[in-house]
Amino acid sequence: MKHVLVLLTAIGIIVSALALREHYRTEGDAPCSINERWDCGIVNHSPYAVLAGIPVAILGIIGYLLMGALAWRRAYAAVLAAALVGLAFSLYLASIEAHVLGVWCIYCVISLGDISLITLLALATTLASPSRKSNQLS
Predict the structure, then answer these.
(1) How do residues 80-89 score in pLDDT, each as one tens digit?
(2) Beta carbons within 10 angstroms of residue 89's beta carbon
(3) Which residues of 42-77 are buried (b: 16+ CB within 10 A; e: fewer)?
């Protein structure tokens, strides 16, 4: 499970880095500007793309790095705790996209799917850990 979680966190780092690039883009159309409902530029240049002066994408990179390091150490309960925070924040941002901005960012949607998978896998691994240990003791 460790390698799957590390791979998923690497994907999260990549999409967060792409969103960060979009946040700092000043010229040209966003490569993910698909139509009036899908435009990363609008989302990543909105006031919701910054929290306490820090671009949300940087927070994503830091969060995915933390979860990757925890997964590498097989600290699955800690991965789960971090993933739940990340999932809650991702869902909040998705509601901003849906109800306030009316525009979706493909990078954000991929990140939401990624953090959802990480959360589910970390939950399953954490729940399975005590039963695996008790089976080994028997």
Answers:
(1) 999 999 999 9
(2) 17
(3) bbbbbeebbeeeebbbbbbbebbeebbebbeeebbe
**Residue 11: Cβ-neighbour burial (10 angstroms; 0-12, 13-18, 19+):** middle
pLDDT of 64 reads: 98
State which H helix or E strand residue 73 sits in: none
Contacts of 22 by beta carbon, 8 Å cutoff, 6+ apart: 30, 32, 40, 41, 44, 57, 105, 107
State the residue for tokens 């409902």. 37
For residue 55, the cross-strand partners are: 50
Give Cα separations from 102 to 35, 94, 107, 109, 138 (angstroms).
12, 10, 16, 14, 55
pTM to 2 decimal places = 0.89
Supply the DSSP string of 8-54, one letter for each residue: HHHHHHHHHHHHHHHHH--SS--TT--SSSB-HHHHHTSGGGEETTE
